[in-house]
Each structure stands twice: as structure tokens, then as C-alpha cells.
Amino acid sequence: MDPGRGEFLVAATDPLLQPYRLRHLTLRNRLMTTAHEPAYPEEGMPKARYRAYHLERAKGGLALTMTAGSAAVSRDSPPAFNNILLYKDEVVGWMKDLADACHEHGTAVMIQITHLGRRTRWDRGFWLPVVSASHRKEAAHRAYPKKIEEWDIRRIVTDYADAAERMQAAGLDGIELEAYGHLMDQFWSPLTNDLDGPYGGTLDNRLRFALEVLSAVRRRVGPELIIGVRFSADELLPGGLTPADGLEIARRLKATGMVDFLNVIRGHIDTDAGLTDVIPIQGMPSAPHLDFAGEVRAKIGLPTFHAARIQDVATARHAIAAGKLDMVGMTRAHMTDPHIVRKIREGREQDIRPCVGANYCLDRIYQGGAAYCIHNAATGRELFMPHEIAPAPRRRKIVIVGAGPGGLEAARVAAERGHEVLVFEAAAEAGGQVRLTARSSRRREMMGIVDWRMSQCAARGVTFRFETYADAEDVIAEAPEVVIVATGGLPQVEALESGNDLVVSSWDIISGSTAPRSEVLLFDDAGDHVGLQAAEILAAAGARLEIMTPERSLAPEVMNMNLVPYLRSLQKLDVTFTVTYRLARVTREGGRLLATLGSDYDSVRAERRIDQVVVNCGTVPSEELYFALKPLSVNLGEVAHDQLFAGLPQTVRSNPRGTFQLFRIGDAVSCRNTHAAIYDALRLVKDL
Ligand SMILES: Cc1cc2nc3c(=O)[nH]c(=O)nc-3n(C[C@H](O)[C@H](O)[C@H](O)COP(=O)(O)O)c2cc1C
Ligand code: SF4
User: In the prediction, which pLDDT does 191 show?
Assistant: First the structure.
């Protein structure tokens, strides 16, 4: 069967690839990305980087991209995570460029618009007080709002209409009003509406603001522009909106005749934990709210969209085939692989890079300033990092030492460039620290990072030599043209003033090489996942555990949503959390250990008597091989940064006697994380 005919058959029979008619708009298939602000705007505008990000998904065959996420209609809705500012006229030109570029590739473009209400902070932008339908603070952003007055309401209703008009002028196909956790549903929910009079009390009153917004927007943009509402039809909170309330709200929205689609959410987002149930992280069930969204669709009969951890094509296909949804959101899945639709069409589903639910993307919009995917380093860097690797001008022999995430990414990219690739790995299997991570059942999905690369490497003939602790001689014997050292690191266990021989590392606990004792002090100086993973294992084994950090907060490298599952399990296991203390030394005392503590803040001293001390102090690079090879290399290990960032091949030749180029990536250089190792590999090897 020729590929053209194969593609035709897939397109004709796959429920996901059937077009969908939304009023006058034909969406070319059933896959969309729902609103997700990746925090890429510059001065509040969606400029070249933003456009390139959406364009990549359009080229990949996506039917509909809901741009932005929480784009702000008013000045007193300051950007909580670098959102687009819709109250500025200059946004029209930028959004037009984006929409035109996506339309050219057949993708419809809409935008989510909102007023964040209390879900932001007053100390951004114009330093205006945040407004809501009560004075109640939102836990996640910690702002105490001003109780909204009628002149605020009039102003904000007009702001919505102005923003919608701007987006229509930019040529967008539609808009979506955000009504979960934002101002609109802060009016709706009895938990956040303390108003009397026309906007508080009865459901009619609580809906008044939303209906005024809808009317003002419709009046301004006319009948053509598509308008939808993304709302929580069940807040899952005592005293909050129930499913019956949600359905009633949906009925009333439909009855206005002004709403063209619903985008169904279940849950609440006012806390990190609530947000994590709405946007589930790895280890949580797949598609937890799909059936609920299907019920809303069945009962209301409006076109229905939904996204929440539908990360694989089979589940998405089921959502359409079973009539649960009209459009399926695969949002994070497209951050991991923007070419999902194209790969389905080409019968290459096995090549889709899987979203492993790490939520590194989401956590970074608050803590890192921009969303990056843990294992696709090209996402958000489309202007200078490729999602598809170009062939090299000449096939070279590349030896890679280490099959952790960095080494495997180097092998994948090198093989895609057409090089001959040999990988040495000391362990019996690939994965490095990711394999250690995946020992915790909740984080098993991380193996997708390894498994996908292994299958891509297998398809391109990469040779692996496992259980081979390669030394310089082994490497030289292969007569390589390029050597990449990706040997990773080993736990740092020399971090104390004294007593280093009396402690074990977090890796010892996770790997199972050391059994937990009864009373344990875990000193977490790295503040990363490894520390908390070890803590979960210790506490689950029955240890009385104290987690101690010299920082002012727990595990800062883990970030907001990733902390949620750890805290849920550790709180149940009655673990003690101690901040701002640093483990200084450990000595023996009878059959037990005495831990002496200090602090970075003052000269305080404290003590703990325990059975076991576990330290989590990052890794030290495994760099012996690199230094053994360095004098034999042409570049003495040097990376020319100018060339690296200009996307040019590396040409340093500082050692005329050298016979190969030598590079080092990932934790073999310094202790960082999975994304850093993969990015190190991609940006270097794409030009080798
Ligand atoms: C980086 C990021 C930012 C997001 N920002 C928004 C937002 O501003 N508004 C919104 O309604 N949803 C937002 N979301 C949620 C997504 O629309 C979607 O509901 C969520 O990612 C679950 O779908 P998925 O499992 O297909 O990724 C965001 C998601 C991500 C990953
Ligand atoms: S960081 Fe994790 S959750 Fe986010 S897109 Fe990448 S794999 Fe998916």
C-alpha cells in the first residue's frame, strides 16, 4: 500500500481525524490545545517566540489552538504568570501575525480572555488593588481583594467587550471566557461571593455579571465571532458549586443563545492541591474528568471541549468515538510533541513523544518564568531549537558514554542526523537517574523519557554496549570522530564538617541498598525530587522521620504542583518538616547517632538523637573519563559558546595531536536536572 493511500484510509476512518463544524467554522480534526499561558509574552505581547510556538503546532496538524491563557482584559487583572495584556491596542498586530501564520497552515485560532479577580497579586503592573466578589483571599496568590463596587463592574464589562473587539480585529476565530477560579465565577460560587443586592445572593444575581459580559461582548462583536465559556461545573468543595449548580449554569448560558461552546472543568484552583486535581500530574489517574464532561455534553447539548490528562491518542480517540466530547484537549501532550496529528495521519503513532505528566512546564511558569517541557528542549525555543532534526552533511562516528537522559538524547539526535552512534553504559539498562526516579511507583511514567529515546535509537541503528564501564582505551579503540561524555554524577556524601562516614545518601534509600531505620533525620540541602522521594520511602517504611532543610521553604527545586503529591503522602505519614537548619556534623553515641545542627541565619546550635542520617546534597560529576580523554582530543573539551548559540558546528582545534572532538554534557559537568541534560545534548548535537 503506498503511503498516500495509507494516510487517506487513516484520515477516513479515525474518529480523531474527522472534521468538526462549529457554527460556520470547520475544524479539520478533533484535537485542540486548550488555553495555556506558557509565560512567553514580551512586555505582555505575543511576539515572535509566541508565534513560533503556536505555529509549530499548526504545522503539526492541530485543528484549534486556544491561545494565551488568562489574557487580561483590565489593568486590575495584572499578569499572574506573564499573561497577554488585552487592554492594550498594540496587541492587535501581534495577535494578527500569530493568527495569520496559524491560519495559513489550516489551524483555527481562538483566545481565552479573563479578569483574574483575586487570582493574582496587587504588587504587579499598576499596583491596583485586586477585586473580587468578597474580601476573601485566594490561598495560591495570597492577595486580599477589594470587594467589587458597581463602578468596577461597569468598567470591567466594557473592558471585556473592548478586548473581544480587539481579538476580532486581529482575525481570530473566537474567544473563550475563563470562569473557573477567576472573577467571573468568583461571582458564581457561594464560597467567594459575599455581595448583597443585584450581584450577590441568588443564582440569578450571581450570574448577572457573566451575562452582562456576554451581552456586552456579543453586542460589540456581532453574531459571527465564536464565544465559549470554560467553567467548573463542579467545584468539588464543601459549600461550593455542585454538579447540579454547574448544569443549571450551563443551561442558563445556553438559554442566552450567546454561547457557542462549553469547555468543561471539574474542581477548583484556589490552592496548589486543587489546581493539581484539575490538571493532574504523573501518578494520578488518566482522564479523571472525561466522563463528567461527557455527562455535561449529554445533558446540555452544546458543543463540548475538555482537557485533563488525556495524554495518549487512544484515550483521545475513545473520548470522540464514545461521544463524550466534540473536541479533545491534548495540551501538555502537544507541548511534548507538537506533531501528534501529523504522526497519526502518517501511521506513526509509535513515534509520538509521550507527555510523562511531570508538570515541569506548569511549575516553571510561576517559578522559572517560562514553560519548558521536561524532555522536549525545543518547546518554547522554536526560534532556535528544532523539533525535527536535519541530516548532517557528513556521516561521522560518534561515541557516547552514558545512557542517562542526556546521553540518550545525544544518541537520538546524532542518529537522526545520520551518524554512526555507539553508546557505552556501565549499568545493565539505560536510564541513569531517571531509572532511579521511576523506582517510586508514582513517578514510573518518567520512564517514558527513556523508553521513547530507546525506541527512536533502535529504529536508527544505534549500538548500545551495556554493563561496560568504558575507560579511555575502550573509547579510543573505537576510533571515534566525536566523543560525548554523559556519565552523570554520584551522590555528594562529603558535605558535613565531620561524620560523613556515618551517613547514607538519598540514593541509597531509593535504590533499596540501605534499609530505613526507626528514627531518621533526612538532611535535604539539594531541595530536589530525590530528597522527597527518599523521604516518602522512609516514612512509608514506618520510620519516624524529620526532613530538615537549610532553606526557608521545603524542597524549592520541586516547585508548587510537584510538591502536592509528596505533601499529601508525607502529611498522612506524620512526617516533621524543619526549615532553616543545617546539619553540621554527626557522631556516634552508644548504638545511635548524634546530629549537631547549625543555621545559615545565626550561630544557634541544636541536636537530634536518631538511628539514621540520610543526606541529599546533590551529585558530584563522574568526570574521570572526561579528564582522561581531554589531552587526547582536538578541542581539549572546549565548547565554543559563540558557535553553540549561533547554531554552527564546533570548530575548536587547540590540540593538533588530538584525534577526536570531546564534549561533556548533563550532570557529568555539574549537578542540574533532566531538562538541562537533554537541552545540553540537543543544542550541541543538532549541529555536529
Ligand atoms: C503552562 C500551562 C499554563 C496553563 N494556563 C492556563 C490558563 O491560563 N487558563 C486555563 O484555562 N488553563 C490553563 N492551563 C490548563 C490547560 O488548559 C489544560 O486544562 C491542562 O493542561 C490539562 O490538560 P492536558 O492534560 O491536556 O495538559 C495551563 C496549562 C499549562 C500546561
Ligand atoms: S513537562 Fe511533563 S507534563 Fe509538561 S509537557 Fe513535558 S512531559 Fe508533559
Answer: 98
Cβ 477 vs Cβ 470: under 8 Å: no
d(CA 137, CA 146): 10
Q: HSE-up of 311 (CA within 13 Å, CB side)?
A: 23
* pLDDT surpasses 60 at 3: no
> pLDDT at position 397, please?
98
Task: Convert the pLDDT of each residue in 178-237 to its tens digit.
Answer: 999 999 999 999 999 999 989 999 999 999 999 999 999 999 999 999 999 999 999 999
Place of cell 485560532: 109
Q: Which atom of ligand 1 is nearest to the CA of 265?
A: 19
pTM listed for this prediction? 0.97
Task: Measure the N-to-C terminal CA separation of the chain; round to a whole number of Å.
Answer: 36
Whole-number pLDDT of residue 369: 87
Q: Is the pLDDT of residue 425 over 60?
A: yes
> Considering all CA atoms of the chain, what is the largest pairwise distance in Å, rounded to the nearest integer?
85
Beta strands in 511-652 (DSSP E): 519-524, 544-549, 576-579, 582-589, 592-598, 606-610, 612-616, 619-621
Which residue's CA is the nearest one to ligand 1's atom 3?
A: 36
- Nine-digit cell at 533? 522521594
For the Cβ of 178 lying below 6 angstroms from any atom of ligand 1, the answer is yes
Write the single-letter amino acid at 250: A
So what's the pLDDT on residue 406?
98
Residue 553 CA, chain-centre distance (Å), reads: 22
- Ligand minimally distant from the alpha carbon of residue 358: 2
Q: Which atom of ligand 2 is nearest to the CA of 354?
A: 7
Query: Do 140 and 119 meet the contact criterion of CB atoms below 8 Å apart?
Result: yes
How many angstroms is it from 335 CA to the middle of ligand 2? 7
400 phi/psi in degrees, rounded to 5: -120, 135
Beta-bridge mates of residue 620: 490
Whose grid coordinates read 489546581?
Answer: 275
* DSSP strands (E only) in 87-130: 108-114
pLDDT at 368: 81
Cα 446 versus chain centre, distance: 13
* Ligand 1 atom closest to the CA of 38, numbered from 1: 1
- Ligand lying nearest the CA atom of residue 33: 1
C-beta separation of 189 from 200 below 8 A: no
Q: How far is the CA of 210 from the centre of ligand 1 (A)?
A: 22
The ligand whose atoms approach the alpha carbon of 357 most closely is 2
Q: What is the mean pLDDT of residues 361-385?
A: 95
CA of 35 to the centre of ligand 1 (A): 6
359 touches ligand 2 (CB under 6 Å): yes
Chain segment 598-646, per-residue pLDDT in tens: 999 999 999 999 999 999 999 999 999 999 999 999 999 999 999 999 9
User: Which residue do the cell numbers 521536561 mark?
Assistant: 374
Q: Which three cell numbers stand for residue 602?
A: 545565626
Which residue carries 524543619 as its cell? Answer: 578
CA-nearest residue, atom 11 of ligand 1: 35
